[in-house]
Structure formats: structure tokens, C-alpha cells
Amino acid sequence: MKYYHTNTNFLWGVATAANQVEGGWNEDGKGMSIADCLRYRPQIDIRDYKSVNSMDSEEIKRALRDNSTKGWAKRHGVDFYHNYREDIRQLAETGINTYRFSIAWSRIFPNGDDSKPNKAGLDYYLNLVKELAKYDIEPVVTLSHYEMPLNLVLNYDAWYDRKLISFFEKFADTVIDYLHEYVKYWIPINEIDSIIRHPFSSAGLVEDRFQNKNFSNVIYQSMHHQFVAAARVVQYCHNNYPNMKVGCMVTRTMVYPYNSDPQNVLQASKVMRDVYAFSDIQVRGKYPNFLLKQLEEKNIRLKMESTDEEDLKKGSADFVAFSYYSSVCTAYDVTGLKVTKANRTMGVYNKYLPESDWGWQIDPIGLRLSLIDLYDRYQKPLFIVENGLGAVDELASDGSVHDDYRIDYLSKHIKQMLISLTQDGIELMGYCIWGTTDMISASSNQISKRYGLIYVDLDDEGNGSYKRYKKDSFYWYKKLLSFGSEIPFSFFKTTNVSVEEVSLKIR
């Protein structure tokens, strides 16, 4: 299949992760996952993401002792597990034609190393994709999105243990076989680069379990195992289901030099190379020389089996999926400079950009630059699978939620995407808003950092009716998609572009 900027198969949609929406954490045979160990910690500054998501053996023991959902936000989510039919029905009203979601690994193989899958889990996802088919909504399925079985941490060394490659293969192959009639787009591992920033939620790595090892070496070795596992998923799909497309998925943060000082420009270039390193491996099928040099300088030595290089080469991704929320600046010397965050990436405050309630700087043009850079680098179809604004929303007495700030954010980003489609010659498969309903934040384990088009009556302590309310942004997205093949730029609030309209065949 070819993808063009006037593609009749352009995918407009929304996206979620199982651990952030599903709930039902111990129902119908589901095992405990690493996400079930993460607590909401109001005593910690919400911008201190490292501390909020820190994990040690004592925290895991605490989680194992407590079978409640109180304080464990990802155990209850927003109860999508029991409400998916109604949630999908409401989302279908917007006119979306794709929904990206993830599979809870521990719902299929409760312990990760089970001999047989949990049929109730498989049937749940089969019913979900059948429900999407009723509304002609194309599923895009992420196999692993921060929710591996806890047993693989307790009785193995998580992704540091090479056995996890075969465990993941078995899980992936089982799900792909079960859903193959309904799903053609797959992403093996969400934001595979995130293991560097949060090794527990990405790969189940707990530092105090590796006291006699260089933890940086542990992280990169674990990442290597994830690369091999993902590449084998690509091969499995290509060999058994030739019509399937399998993408890689990375965190895309645009990084600028703080100013024109050549040392800051060089620093930004170095950071951007780090951003690219992990997609390079999955798209080009080999480790880039600059990353190998970095590992050598850090005295990090990867253990590889003789087949690994061939696996990476044969398992290169069909498309490049990425999340984009914001950008940062960087400087070779940050002394005295204000530090900010972008999707848990530390950087220097950019005086030209506003920031969200959680300190993420809002940069729509950074999305266009990301599209240009990624396409120029790989010449493969791109897919924006996450873009959205976490904000404090207020539910009015009449059940309305006036989130003009979210509409403004989405409008400006989508507009830059459309400009890039018309002017920059990129190939783009689709665009997904993060998220659908509100969900539990991955970074702060709270729901008050709301992303959804639909408000959920729930607070950070887990109190509420779980009732859904459509936000103004829901109706805005519905109106946008109602234009069908012709989306006029006049629909967007922002100006300063010469292009008057864009043709996108989305029906």
C-alpha cells in the first residue's frame, strides 16, 4: 500500500493505553502488571516525574500486600473494561476512522511465562475489535504499552533476561493470530526509547535488583532485547500475514539550541542524535555508529547472539509512529537557566513558547519540523499516534466542559500537520488525539491531568461516578471530521499561512 498526502485511507482517530483506561485489574483471569504497582503520590511535586514514578523492591512489596484500588489509579482506570461498547459508540459519533489501543499483556498471559493463554482475555479484545468494525473504525494495536506482567519482574530479571524475547514472541504471535481478521496495523512496543527515562514502567527494571551490575548497562541490554523481540514481530507478520503493516514507535521531542552559540547548537545536535538513535535501529535495521561509539565511551557492552543482527535487519519497520506533545531547548551549560519538561524530557525553558499546567511547552511548529526531519531521514510513511494536551478541566453544573485551551492546542497542531502535508512532501498515514475519554496520566498517575475528549467523573483519589460527559473539544473534533475530503484552513483559529485549504480523503 502506498500513502499519499491525498490518501483515501488517511486515518483520523484517538488513542489510549490499556493500563490507563481499562481497570478490571484482577478480573477474568488477568494477572498483576507493573502498572498495578504505581501509586498516585500527591505529596510529591507532579513535575518531579522521576520521583513520582520511582520504584524499588519495597514499593513492589507494598503493592503486593494491598489488593484494593484506592490510591492505585491504574488498577481502576476509567473502567473502559466494562464500558468499552458505550465509549466506542460515543467516539464513533465524532467520525473517527481509527482507534489506537494497547493489549494488556497480563490479560493474555497472566504471568508472562504461562504455557497457555487466558481465553477470556483474548475474547475481550476480539469483542473490542468487532465492536470497532461495527462503526468502520480501523484498529491500530500496540502490543506492549507500559504494562508487562509483574511476575516477569519477580521471577526473572524483566527485560534484562533474554528469556523475555521468547515470552513476548509467544504473547505477540498469539494475539496477532487471534485478531488477524480485524487488525492490520501493529506496533510492537510503545515509545521503545522511554526505557532510558523510566526503566520500570517501560521494561520492569528495578535498580536495587541489580546491585552488582552497572544499571546503565542493564538498561541498554534490556533495550536490545526489546529491539530483537520487536523485529521478530515484524517478521512474524510479514511471513504469515503479508497485508499487515508493523511500525516502530518512539517519543518525538523537538530539541532546539538555547541560542545561536555554536556550542549550544552542537549540544542540540547531540541530543537530537540521541532522539533518533532508537528509531534508526528499528527503521534501518542496525545500530547507528554514533550510538555504538557512545556505548563504548560509557563502557557499556551489549551481549548479542549470532542471529540478532540478522533479526534486526529482516525486522525493520514498515512505518514510523511517534508521539509528539512539546519541545525543549538545550544548552551546553544550563547554570542559571530555567529548566522545563517535555514528555518527561528535561530541557531549558523556551521564552517564545507557552507551557501547560504540567510545564510542557506548547509548540505546534515543532510538530511540522518533526514530520520534515523524520521523513527526510527515513523516507517511510509516518503516523502521529499521540498528540494532546493534559490540562485541568472543570465540569459545569449543566454537564458541559468548556476546554477552549485544548481546542486551541489541537487546532494549531493539526493545522501545522496539514501545512506539512501540502507543502513539505511528506507521507503521512494518520493522526490520533491522545486520548478518548479522560484517562490516568502515565507520568503522574492522576486523572486530574485530563487529556480526553470526554470527561470522566473521577478524582485523583478514585472517587466518582465514572459518568461520561462530552467536552467542547469532542464537538470541535466532530465538526472538523465532518468536512470529509475538504478541510478548509478557515476552520482553524490561527492564521499566518498562505495555503487556503487542504484535500485529505478521510472517508
UniProtKB/TrEMBL annotation:
Catalytic machinery residues: E386
Xref: InterPro entries: GH, GH_1_N_CS, Glyco_hydro_1, Glyco_hydro_1_AS
Single Gene Ontology BP annotation: carbohydrate catabolic process
Domain of life: Bacteria
Gene Ontology MF terms in the entry: beta-glucosidase activity
GO cellular component: cytosol
Record-stated family: Belongs to the glycosyl hydrolase 1 family.
Name listed for the protein in its UniProt record: 6-phospho-beta-glucosidase
Organism, as annotated: Companilactobacillus paralimentarius DSM 13238 = JCM 10415
